[in-house]
């Protein structure tokens, strides 16, 4: 008897880039059911639960700052928080 595959938490992508390009990118991901949040030059996009696949490609103007599986809210708290 084999064990059931372990479900992984959805990946959250921590992004940095120009606000206008982030805005357009987030609209595209939101249309596909992703959770999206942004504040100025930073954004977090999180895959829908249960969706897995290759990491998305980003426009040249967007820098991937990291990937986390801590959940969308925690990723936003960590990435979008003001730097003191």
Q: What do you see in this structure?
A:
By secondary structure, this protein is α+β, with helices and mostly antiparallel strands. Helix content is 26%, strand content 25%. The chain contains two helices and four strands. The chain has a four-stranded antiparallel sheet with strand order 2-3-1-4, sandwiched between helices. The protein is globular and about 30 Å long. Residues 1-6 have low confidence and may be disordered.
Question: Summed up, what is this model?
Answer:
This protein has 84 residues and is of the alpha+beta class. It is built from 2 helices and 4 strands.
Beta-strand segment tally? 4
Shape summary: globular
Enumerate how many helices there are, as a single number.
Answer: 2
What composes the largest sheet? 4 strands, antiparallel
**Unreliable parts:** 1-6
Radius of gyration: 14 Å
Q: Please provide the ordered H/E string of secondary-structure elements.
A: EHEEEH
**Taking all residues together, what is the mean pLDDT?**
90
Fraction of residues in H or I helices: 25-40%
- What's the oligomerization state? single chain
Spatial ordering of strands, largest sheet:
2-3-1-4
Structure classification: alpha+beta
Percent of residues in beta strands: 25-35%
In whole angstroms, the N-to-C terminal distance is 53 Å
